[in-house]
Design goal:
This protein has about 210 residues and is mainly alpha-helical. Helix content is about 85%, strand content about 0%. Helix 2 packs across helix 8.
Length: about 210
């Protein structure tokens, strides 16, 4: 159980990348008054938790309705996370965990950035949503393990919130280069985790094929 919790926490922490997202948050809100910045941080993290909870609890059922099995989703999700890991290692902007250039231009003219782009896609982007569904699938319907996973989602988001509240100080300490170094290290870890998801999916697919013969 402890090993599974550590695995899930590491995966969530790497994908959400609280350090890297806090640096982006600091840059995006550098002209926002401190009180408003705190409100945006709390609201964005709360919305991200709600989004991830919804996908964790209902994502697998949604894919079942669409006729997508967990083996296929683990393989596809693993490939998606590997692409995300590649972007993280090379410190490239990615629509999987950040915002594209056109979205950045749209965000520049918005007064309230909490829903877009902070909650989505910065915190609860496609990469994070894919991850929570994959991790929930690993619990195999165990309610205790499922509740523990939701608790880990809340924990990682709480860490993110703390870093958001101290984002300015964090950016001064690490600098943009320092935050990119942290992101690159996390990207290497995510690449290995993504490959494991693909391998798990292939094992499940082979087992299903054998059972059908």
């Amino acid at each position: 159980m402890l090993k599974s919790l550590l695995y899930s926490f590491t995966t969530l922490f790497v994908v959400i990348d609280p350090v890297g997202t806090a640096a982006i948050f600091a840059l995006m809100t550098r002209v926002v008054p401190p009180g408003e910045r705190r409100r945006m941080a709390f609201k964005a993290c709360a919305l991200a938790v709600i989004i991830l909870f919804l996908f964790a609890l209902g994502g697998e059922a949604l894919f079942a309705v669409l006729g997508i099995g967990m083996p296929a989703f683990r393989i596809g999700g693993g490939i998606l996370l590997f692409l995300l890991a590649t972007d993280m290692v090379f410190a490239r902007p990615s629509g999987l965990r950040g915002i594209t250039e056109s979205e950045d231009m749209e965000a520049a003219v918005r007064e309230d950035l909490t829903v877009f782009p902070l909650a989505f896609p910065l915190l609860a982007g496609p990469g994070a949503m894919t991850t929570v569904v994959l991790l929930m699938g690993r619990t195999e319907g165990d309610p205790l393990a499922g509740a523990a996973l939701l608790g880990l989602v809340a924990l990682v988001m709480a860490i993110t919130l703390v870093l958001f509240l101290h984002a300015g100080r964090l950016l001064k300490i690490l600098g943009r280069t320092g935050s990119n170094v942290v992101t690159r290290i996390l990207g290497i870890i995510l690449a290995a985790l993504a490959v494991q998801f693909v391998l798990d999916g292939l094992i499940l697919a082979v087992a299903a094929l054998r059972n059908s013969l």
